Amino acid sequence: MSNNIVPIEQPNSQKPSSHIRAGRECSPFAHRIDPNDGILKPIIPCGAIANSLFNDTFQLERLVHDASNNPTYNEVPLIKTGIAWATDRNKFKNPPMPKGLNNLAAAFNGTLHPVNWPRHVYDLDPSDPNDNGLQNEGLIVWMRTAAFPTFRKLYARIRHDINEKDVSYQEGLPKGKYRLHIQYNFPVAGFKGKKRFIISNTSWLGGRNPFIGAVYILVGLTALLLSGLFLIIHKKFSPRFVSTIKKMALNDDVKNLLQKYGQQHLLQFFDRNSLEQNKQLIDDINSVDFQSLCRDEYFKNSDHLIESIEQQLQPLDAKIQQDIRQTSPELIEKYRQLGVKIKNVSYSPSNQSIGTGLEEISKGKVAVLLLAGGQGTRLGSSLPKGMFDLGLASHKTLFQIQAERIYRLQKMAGKSEAIIPWYIMASEHTLNSTIEFFKKNNYFGLDEKNIMFFEQDNIPCFTLDGKIILKQMFKLARAPNGNGGLYEAISKKGILNDMQQRGIHHIHAYCVDNILVKVADPVFIGYCATKNVECGAKAVEKMNPNEAVGVICKVGGRYQVVEYSELSEEISQQRGADGRLMFNAGNICNHYFTLKFLREKVRYDELPYHLAKKKIPYVDGEGRPIQPDKPNGIKLEKFIFDVFRFVDEDKFAVWQVIREDEFSPLKNNDQAISDTPTTARLSLYNLHQRYLLKAGAKIIDGQNGQPVPLPLSPVLTTDKSKYSNQVVCEISPLISYEDENLLDLVNGKTLSTPVILS
């Protein structure tokens, strides 16, 4: 039965000053009618256990003889405090006294004692005023629910500090004759109960309890017996017995599967592993798609592949690509325009209209897919790249910059339905830290329900000759399946369904490491929408034939990105009539898709794997962990651009952008000469300096007052001296997504470095 002592206000004139009530859980011992005035009042304490409070009284007396040898009985001094656990005493508190009164009875005014009690709660111990009310220790002891139907409750303890003339109680009850007076108040015949009065000693272990001791002895003997039994089994049958048990867990299907694909070595430590480890190993093996991963062509010499690719190479048709540098401002604006105005937004050099892309955003038809990648290992950080501090004046991370660009676009669209859902794919090692980072930063002002995080799959790593690597004796070495794993993940993890429910039509996908990325770029979306294509790609023109960047082209009549390592020097250097490289569309992992294309045409299980030689930790033949110092294995990866093969020839478009405006990746630490935190940071400063100059601002050195020159962007040179004088110039994306809104802010003004608009 529940027992509760909880506060409430009473709606009558005899409201308890302590605001006491009996909770509903106490029913049917919560209230009763006061026989004196006929008013229903709360019972305190309430509940069945309190109502059944043990109220027999005991008086223990010791037989003594006086000087005349006449027998008489002296009462043994008992005390009823110090019998409850300290933790229990802290749970029970008396209500506060009414102001001006020092009477516990007044604190319980308007309440009644339980029906089976002969006295009120504030008068439980007349011999000790401090042992009354809800802090009466006899009540506290009784309220602790017993574990078994037969139980003991401590009634009192002998006072050891009182000595009579002929006896001392310091060592307990002295030897002699005693008698016990019992006032029988607690009936037990109705439920065939029994009562006992027990005199016992206590020790540091507590009171005497033979039941607990018997349990301890029984458990100890059982453990001793079992240990002996297991010892006999171990000596007589091990290791043959254990090996047999382990092999029972290995069925023929697993062995046949490994034999079919030449991966029997995965079981080399099976007899040494524990049963639980082998279960983990078998589960790991069963999760592998051997048919798609264990193919001989992945591990053969690739020279013949280069030759076969070159025979089918074709440059992009002019009709499916457009260069922003060769596009008129009016046509660029056409991609933005479709009748919906941007309020309070000014594009330099004049006010402009919202574009096709922004109109689609304003209708809630645009979503963003972020490939958040893995850890920033090459940056010397275990954090996800998006959380890396680039050293900006604002100390904003890539995640924050991109979130604020989305926030700004939503505001520019100017409608309540202008929501840009953000889908973020992370790896096994970065997912949780990424989610926590967004939570910690309150999602950078975006609505939490419009940001969805999901994890890409991991697949096994292989030796150079195609054998799956064991990271531990019972665990396969695994790695993320590349950014092309996006398509399987968004299909299996409900992302495509969520997009469809939101009415999404256009999707912008990009990699996190580009500090200049225009997230959900309305011009790019407007361009692709105007062309009525189902797939598009942004590109930058290759700076030279040997630049380590893949090129977008056609292979065998299908669109594809061919890695620079797959092109011979002869092909790389071919030029057209205009003197530009024929294969010049450098891929920057910045793509456009329609939802219909992703749902209906992309077949992720048909995408090929690409090889990347890496240093992969493994265990040797003795099971010892090894950290290699040079590439010893292969990671298979799918690439996001491999879906180009599913695009119809007239449904693909390439938008070639200005490198220094839109592409500055973060890949290496500052010891490298390019793609470092420094080049990324200075590229952003350079872009923002150009924005301000275009908007009519004059920038001077904050120390000498001289005009500040505009250096070359770091993405255009590896010569640090050509951009080392780049000044700090940072514009918050919350002020301007691109260069809009700056005309009214800075036109005709002189700005001193460092320039920070936030």
TrEMBL record:
Subcellular location: Membrane
Chain positions covered by the region annotation Disordered: 1-21
Stored SUPFAM superfamilies: Nucleotide-diphospho-sugar transferases
GO biological process, one term: UDP-N-acetylglucosamine biosynthetic process
Documented EC number(s): 2.7.7.23
InterPro entries in the record: CDC50/LEM3_fam, Nucleotide-diphossugar_trans, UDP-sugar_pyrophosphorylase, UDPGP_fam
One Pfam family in the UniProt entry: UDPGP
GO (cellular component) term, any one: membrane
The protein's enzyme class: transferase
Membrane spanning residue stretches: 211-233
Comp. bias (Polar residues): 1-17
Family as reported in the entry's similarity comment: Belongs to the UDPGP type 1 family.
Protein name: UDP-N-acetylglucosamine diphosphorylase
The species this protein was found in: Dermatophagoides pteronyssinus
GN (gene name): LOC113797718
